[in-house]
Design goal:
This protein has 369 residues and is of the alpha/beta class. The chain has 11 helices and 8 strands. The termini are far apart.
Length: 369
């Protein structure tokens, strides 16, 4: 019988310890701009990817300033995923400074965008506000088996029309005319997943079958969550309006028929003027605004001030631009369910079964579920 020496045993143990590191190195290195995209990429990539998010949970993409370390992360990546629609005003500069030349996925590519300039906080951002947008852009073309969102041209030229070349440091945090928060409608989330799937296939064609299978499973979960949300929010009266920290729920409003008002625009950096606040207080008193909500990415000071001046309760915290560090809202679908539950618990009326929510039927906008 052969006796193993202590040196042999040590070498064997060292090799076993090295296995996880080697396996990690073999995985596709995916860098995403913020936490919601990171969760999407992890769900589609599964065991074949290692995902790094530049902006982590409970962190604000609007005010993020990339570091040289972030540029190195991109340089070492196999795939980079970002939202687009000027949500990350700093992204193009970071890509250029990193010399990254691999596949670049614009996750929002192909969604039916909503116009941001129509989001005036002095008016309810309800379903009617966006009806025309969706009438012109049916969602039937964005099923998960749709191949139209391939990423054959991931070149950086795709971003020229975002106007970042002329951007100043201040403009890094400014949005364009389109509302960038497309993930807040789960039908748009399906488009995000298709884009991420196609990017992963381009970066790692050997595992195409796994990415397609994972994407299909995940999209089925999105559709099930969408149905849950519709059932929950169907118990909220149509006339209800809610107040949040910044204007990030336009797609949620359009998809699920809840009217959102905001004291500021799309940027979490904005501060409402005294005139803005006075106008919003008037709107609160004129409309059926029944609750205020904090957002995890905005200062609570403005909402607290509104609560003090109007007597409205602060009914909870909603998640818009970043996942929670832990708990249910630490995943994309968990975040969507959390938001719906918080809204339901604050606003639903017991026994309120017949309030005409049919007018918010997603089929009116071409959403196929």
């Amino acid at each position: 019988m052969r006796h193993l020496t202590s040196a042999t045993l040590m070498l064997g143990a060292s090799a076993m310890l090295a296995l996880p590191a080697a396996m990690a190195a073999e995985r596709v290195q995916v860098v995403t701009s913020f936490s919601i995209l990171a969760d999407m990429a992890q769900n589609v990539g599964g065991e074949h990817v290692e995902v790094t998010s530049l902006v982590g949970p409970d962190s604000d993409t609007h005010v993020f300033s990339p570091s040289p370390r972030d540029a190195r992360s991109l340089a070492e990546a196999d795939l980079v995923v970002f939202n687009g629609l000027q949500f990350e005003g700093w992204m193009e500069r970071l890509v250029e400074s990193s010399d990254y030349s691999g596949p670049l996925v614009t996750a929002s590519d192909g969604i039916d965008t909503l116009d941001y300039h129509g989001h005036d906080h002095a008016h309810a951002h309800g379903h009617d506000d966006h009806e025309d947008d969706h009438d012109d852009h049916g969602h039937d073309d964005h099923g998960h088996d749709d191949e139209e969102h391939g990423h054959d041209d991931h070149g950086h030229d795709d971003h020229d029309d975002h106007g970042h070349d002329e951007a100043t440091a201040h403009d890094d945090h400014a949005h364009g005319d389109d509302d960038p928060h497309g993930w807040q409608d789960l039908a748009m989330g399906k488009v995000y997943i298709g884009n991420i799937r196609d990017g992963l296939i381009e970066a790692d064609p050997d595992n195409e079958a796994a990415y397609r299978e994972n994407a299909e499973r995940y999209i089925n979960e999105l559709e099930a969550t969408d149905a849950e949300i519709r059932e929950l929010l169907g118990e909220i009266p149509d006339s209800t309006s809610v107040i949040t920290g910044h204007d990030s729920f336009g797609y949620f409003s359009s998809a699920y028929g809840i009217r959102f008002l905001s004291p500021v625009g799309l940027s979490t950096e904005a501060e409402p003027s005294a005139a803005d606040m006075a106008e919003l207080i008037d709107v609160i008193r004129e409309q059926d605004v029944r609750a205020l909500f904090h957002e995890n990415m905005t200062s609570p000071a403005v909402i607290n001030q509104l609560a003090e001046e109007t007597g409205l309760p602060i009914a909870g915290t909603l998640y818009a631009d970043a996942l929670a560090a832990e708990g249910e809202a630490s995943t994309y679908l968990g975040m969507m369910r959390h938001n719906a539950q918080v809204l339901h618990d604050a606003l639903a009326e017991a026994g309120h079964d017949d309030h005409g929510h049919d007018e918010h039927d997603h089929d009116d906008h071409g959403h196929d579920h």
